[in-house]
């Protein structure tokens, strides 16, 4: 079974003469445990795709199945739950609270998740 399946997915910004297609009818499948690398020129739509897969943005057309669930049909609340409980993000510096330590940022994030991993134990694994 595929872990991720993207079917005829498009993300379109603007309309008419101002229409920009960040992703245009893309299709791919990723099996669980499969290493996948997304490459392309600047502006090719890599970040747009990752934001959609991560539930931070929505696609304009097509379907996105993650573990058999069509996340492209999720409403705002369902996407929030998906982000909170269904996956993990490694953000760059802009999503960290700058006056907190790495541990404190981890502790802050763990307060909004049921059954969160222990932040101190998680940081030790990164050494």
Automatic annotation (TrEMBL):
Pfam families according to UniProt: ABC_tran (PF00005)
Xref: InterPro entries: ABC_transporter-like_ATP-bd (IPR003439), P-loop_NTPase (IPR027417)
Domain ABC transporter span(s) in chain numbering: 24-117
GO molecular function term, any single one: ATP binding
Protein's name according to its UniProt entry: Phosphonate-transporting ATPase
Species lineage: Bacteria, Bacillati, Bacillota, Bacilli, Lactobacillales
